[in-house]
Design brief:
The protein is of the alpha/beta class. Among the domains are: 89 residues, GMP Synthetase, Chain A, domain 3 (2-Layer Sandwich); 115 residues, Beta-Lactamase, CATH 3.30.450.90; 159 residues, Rossmann fold. It has a 7-stranded mixed β-sheet with strand order 14-13-15-16-12-17-20, sandwiched between helices. It has a 6-stranded antiparallel β-sheet with strand order 8-7-6-11-10-9. Strand 3 and strand 4 form a beta hairpin. Helix 2 packs antiparallel against helix 3, helix 3 crosses helix 4 and helix 9 runs antiparallel to helix 14. The relative contact order is 0.08.
Length: 556
């Protein structure tokens, strides 16, 4: 009897609630094998064996196919269908015909642990394959299915293989996964409170670290797993490869020289701050003593002493952080990295270290390089304004964003794009006249010739096409765009801030950023740097508008 083995993705199986289990029909007990393979009747009436990849060629799978044939059931092609642990787990749960919503998530786990562990690895494996930065698992007591999403290139993607995971099985999955969390608050996964921690999985022989953060929402909980993935425990990338301009690269190198000074990277969550900072630390000579204090350690810096702050209970974490900071100040370090500046405890450490002649590197959440100054001087952190205006205290302020980079193999030039039916941002209008008018307006705003611009090809090509992520088709990777402020290179910085409140002056600089009237002659805001990427054909003009000129997206 000839039979083929199907592959999930090339031969997509039916959904678990569309098929019928056939264990009783062929008089085979399901007690021992149901978590590895199941005989099913498909919606078209044909029979098939659904099986996990590692058991696809087992004798038991072949025997099930033979049993289906002997009982006169017409076989599907292929007769054995490889499925994910998610599909097999849902099938075993008996959801195939049950359309009732879940009323409780407090039931005892009924899915075998090894199936749940396999599903956890499937989720992480899919995220790694797709270069996702986060996995989002949202469950609610009134929802039949969980919401499973992945952050890819800054947007949420909901792949089909995980679209039919029930609320109950994801609840069980999270409960099993929480058992491996380190430094977490709470002995068990709790639907009623926010929980944080870290855990690790070994995927294809590589240790993958993930940061867990759960948020209680209306009727349920949303858990975010941040992947510290391939970078974790490995060397950070070269600063050259990240995408900084040549002049920016020189500024970063200057920031590592000398003794005493603060270097701050800012950006939104997932903007690559930690990656850039680790790459910068890698350039510091081995003759200098480097200490890092991180939560968690994301990259290995080969010649640094790296310390991890574990535990998320506020009192315990603060006590541990205070102890380490006190010790670091007495460790005669030349360079100290503090992963993120969050409060006055970290601010006091920064002040003490910088004034003692130590170079300090850290990150904050801010919306521009200038806004780093107001963030540092805010009541939450509390670095004195007088110190921020003191020559030498601040060495370099960096703000960066990650944008979608066009696929160089298939991107359309402006003339080709005008011939397409692609609509303008914020409107269904796709006429050539409307497009030309829109391009002219954007060209006037950016000061660039729109004829050099390129646009995403919706169909993509073999280099950028992804079967489970339509939003990423037409893009190759992400593009780093950064702005920098180096006070020592700005004559007006210290003279303007001397003896005056910091906030009004920073607001004035922000309004004039990039203009000829700006007193900051070397400061190019990120919006101007992104315009350079338009000219070089790396950035779609529509993505530029959505990020830097949203009012133009309202044109009708």
């Amino acid at each position: 009897m000839h039979e083929a083995v199907g592959l999930l993705g090339s031969d997509t199986p039916a959904l678990p609630d569309e098929v019928e289990l056939l264990f009783d029909r062929i008089q085979v007990t399901d007690a021992q094998i149901a978590n590895r393979m199941c005989p099913v009747r498909l919606p078209n009436g044909r029979a098939q064996v659904w099986v996990l990849p590692e058991h696809a060629h087992d004798d038991q799978a072949r025997a099930l196919v033979l049993a289906l044939s002997q009982y006169g059931l017409p076989l599907a092609e292929p007769s054995r269908q490889i499925v994910s642990a998610a599909r097999l787990g849902e099938l075993n749960r008996g959801l195939r015909r049950d359309n009732a919503a879940f009323t409780s998530m407090a039931r005892a786990a009924s899915t075998p642990k090894h199936v749940l562990v396999s599903l956890i690895d499937d989720l992480i494996g899919w995220a790694l394959k797709s270069d996702a930065s986060d996995i989002h698992l949202t469950i609610g007591s009134t929802r039949r299915f969980a919401d499973v999403a992945f952050t890819i290139n800054g947007g949420c993607v909901r792949p089909e293989p995980f679209a039919q995971l029930s609320t109950q099985i994801v609840h069980e999955l999270l409960s099993v996964c929480w058992m491996t969390v380190q430094g977490g608050n709470g002995a068990v996964f709790d639907l009623t409170c926010e929980q944080q921690g870290r855990f690790e999985r070994v995927i294809d022989g590589d240790v993958i670290a993930l940061r867990w953060a759960s948020l209680v929402v209306q009727g349920g909980v949303s858990v975010c797993w941040r992947l510290l993935n391939r970078a974790c425990w490995h060397e950070p990338p070269s600063l050259h490869t990240l995408g900084y301009e040549a002049s920016q690269y020189r500024r970063l190198l200057r920031a590592t020289e000398g003794h005493g000074g603060l270097v701050v990277f800012a950006g939104l969550v997932g903007s690559g701050k930690s990656t850039s900072l680790a790459a910068l630390m890698k350039l510091i000579p081995a003759s200098r003593k480097i200490i890092t204090l991180e939560d968690p350690v994301e990259y290995v810096i080969s010649h640094a002493l790296q310390c991890a702050v574990s535990g998320f209970a506020a009192d315990a974490a603060a006590s541990q952080l205070a102890s380490k900071l006190k010790t670091i100040k007495r460790s005669a370090a030349h360079d100290v990295l503090i992963g993120e500046l969050r409060d006055d405890l970290g601010a006091q450490a920064v002040v003490d270290l910088v004034l003692a002649g130590t170079n300090v590197y850290t990150t904050v959440h801010a919306s521009s390089a200038l806004q780093i100054l107001t963030r540092l001087s805010s009541t939450l952190i509390g670095v004195p304004e007088s110190l921020l205006a003191m020559p030498g205290f601040v060495k370099l302020l960096v703000y960066q964003v990650l944008l979608k980079q066009l696929c160089p193999m298939c991107a359309l030039d402006a003339t080709q794009w005008l011939q397409t039916d692609d609509a303008l941002p914020g409107t269904p209008n796709a006429s050539q006249d409307a497009k030309r008018s829109w391009l002219s307006q954007l060209a006037e705003i950016t000061g660039c010739d729109w004829r050099t611009w390129r646009f995403r090809r919706p169909a993509g090509c073999d280099d950028c096409r992804h079967p489970d992520d339509a939003q990423s088709i037409g893009y190759r990777s992400r593009l780093l765009v950064a702005e920098m402020l180096e006070p020592a290179s700005e004559p007006a910085f210290y003279t303007t801030l001397a003896g005056v409140p910091l906030w009004p002056e920073v607001a004035k600089w922000q309004r004039l950023a990039g203009d000829a009237d700006s007193p900051l002659i070397g400061y190019r805001p990120v919006v101007q740097v992104a315009a350079d990427c338009l000219v070089s054909g790396q950035l779609d003009a529509r993505d530029y508008v959505l990020r830097f000129a949203p009012k133009l997206a309202e044109v009708s």
